[in-house]
Amino acid sequence: MKEMLRNIGINSTGSIKINFSKIGTTWTRNGTSISLLVEDNNFLVGCGAGNAVFPLIATYPDVLVHACDFSPRAVNLVKAHKDFTETSVSAFVCDLTIDDLSKQISPASIDVVTMIFVLSAVSPEKMPLVLQNIKKVLKPNGYVLFRDYAVGDLAQERFSSKDQKISENFYVRGDGTRAFYFSNEFLTSLFKEQGLDAEELGLCCKQVENRARELVMNRRWVQAVFRYTDGVNYSPCSEAPTQVDLCHEENVRCKDDAEPVKDFVVDMSEGMAFEMFGVPTTNDNEVIKIELEGCDFKIKVLSKEYQHTCKSTGLMLWESARLMAAILARNPNIVAGKRVLELGCGCGGICSMVAVQSACMVVATDGDIKALDLLAQNITSNLRPPFLTKLITKRLEWGNRDDIEAIKAMNNEGFEVIIGTDVTYVPEAILPLFSTARELISSNRTAEKDRSPGLILCHIFRRVDEPSLLSAASQCGFRLVDKWAKGNPIDQSQSLISSWFSENSFNEHIPTSALNIMYFQID
C-alpha cells in the first residue's frame, strides 16, 4: 500500500502551500501544517469546490479521487475546474444520510476517507447513517481522517448566547445551516459503534484575533484518525487512541529529515482556510448577490467564517429578509405611495431597498452602529437617485425615547407600513419592539384591511412562541389580522398574506419551512 504525507500550510499571501513526503500511518499537525494520509484510492466527503482534490491529483497524477458534496453547485465547480478529468476525479452529488454510496463507488475499494468539517452539518441522530454509508466503500483496515468543531469552541458560546440551540451541542446558523460540536467521548463512541476505532485523537486550539472588529476568538477543533477494524485481524499499538495535544502547536516543528517530493501552490477559499487553520482573512466581509424581480443587489455582509463568532446579529443577511424582500418586489402595492419603516434591518437592508422603489418614504433602522455603517455602504453601492435620497437610515433602539423622538421628528404623521424580519428571537425585546412600533405607526385607519396601517413580521419561531408574541402585541394595542406559515393550508380568498404569493413562485426564497409571517394592525 502506498502511503504519503500531505503537508498544508498557509503563506503570508493567503494561498495554500502543499508539501508531500512519505510517512507511516499518522495524521499529525505541526506548526501551521496538517499531515494527511494519502492512498491509491481516496474519497473526499464534502469536497466543496475541490480545494483538496486538485492539489492531490497535481502531485500524484495516478491517484484516483472520489469526491462528493451535498451541494450540486459545489460539484459543478469541481467539474468545471481546469484540472478536472474523469480519469482522475469522480465527482458526484450525494446526501450521505440517504443516498447509497456503493452505487457510485465500488464496495470495499477506498483506502482513505477524509471528512473535514462535514459531519458537524448532519443531525446527530443521522450521523450513524453517514458512517454506515462510508463503511460500505472503505477497505478493511482503511482510514477515516477527521477534523471538525470541538465542544468549547467560541462559536458554540456565541450560538448559546443567541439561543440558536437545537439540541445538545447542536445549533442552527443564521443562514439555516447546522453546526454540531464534538466531544472526544461522543466522537470515539460514535465511530466505535460503527466498527471504526480511533488510533489518534487530538484537540486543535488556536486564538484568532480580528483587530478591526476587536474580536479575539478561541477556536477549537477535534482531529482524529479512525481505522476500519470490523471483522479484520489487526493489532493496534495500544487499545486506547493516541492522545495528541495540539493546543500548543506553535511550539512544534516538522522533522528536518522529511524530504518533500513536490511543492504545489493552490488558491483556497478564505472560508475554508479559516475553518481548517483558524487563519484570519484579509477581508472579513463578503458580497452576496440577491436577484429579485427587477431588483438585483450586491450586499456586503460579514463573512460566514466570522458570523457564528460575532456578537452582532445585524452583520449578516437572514433568510426571512430574503423572503420579505421577494414579496415586496413582486407585490409593490404593499408599500406603493406609503411611508415605510423597517425595524432591525441590519446591514443588508434589502427590504428597505426594494420598498423604496414604490414607497414615498423609507426609513431603515437598527440599534447596531456597525450594522448601520455597513448598511450605508450597501445603500450607496446599490441605489441611485431618486431612490437614494428617499431611503434614510437611522439608529433606533426599541424603547429608547431619544431614538423614537428623532424618528418622529422626521415624520410626524407616522408610518403606514412597518416591517421587521427576524426581530423576535429575544424574549426581553418583544415588548419594546411592539411598544416602539405602536408609537411610530400611523393612526389613520380605513375600512379596507389591506389599506390600514400594518406591522408585518417575518421570522422563525425560536425562544419566543406565537402566544407570547400575541400577548405582547395585545398589550401594546395591536391585533393579529392575518398570518402565514409555509405548508399550512390557508383559504387564499380570506387571507391577505396568501394573496402575495403565486403558486410555487417563492420556493427559491423559502429555504426552510419554519418561516412565518404575521400581519398586525392597531386594535
Strand tally? 25
Share of residues in helices: 10-25%
Note poorly predicted spans. 1-39, 234-238, 248-282
Net shape:
elongated
Proportion of residues in extended strands: 25-35%
- The chain-level mean pLDDT equals 78
Order of strands across the biggest sheet? 7-6-5-8-9-14-13-15
Structural class: alpha/beta
Rg, Å, rounded: 26 Å
Main sheet makeup = 8 strands, mixed
Helical element count?
A: 14
Distance between the termini: 76 Å
Describe the fold and architecture:
With 523 residues, this protein is of the alpha/beta class. The protein contains 14 helices and 25 strands. The protein has helices spanning 53-59, 72-80, 127-137, 154-162, 184-192, 270-277, 304-307, 319-330, 350-355, 369-382, 387-390, 401-410, 430-440, 466-475; strands at 4-10, 16-21, 29-30, 33-38, 41-45, 64-69, 89-93, 110-116, 138-149, 165-167, 170-172, 178-180, 196-210, 215-228, 242-246, 262-266, 285-292, 295-302, 339-343, 361-366, 391-395, 417-421, 454-460, 478-485, 515-522. It has an 8-stranded mixed β-sheet with strand order 7-6-5-8-9-14-13-15. Strands 21-20-19-22-23-25-24 form a 7-stranded mixed β-sheet, sandwiched between helices. A 5-stranded antiparallel β-sheet has the order 3-4-1-2-16, covered by helices on one side. Helix 13 (430-440) packs across helix 14 (466-475). The longest helix is centred in the C-terminal third of the chain and has 14 residues, at 369-382. The model is unreliable at 1-39, 234-238 and 248-282 (pLDDT under 50).
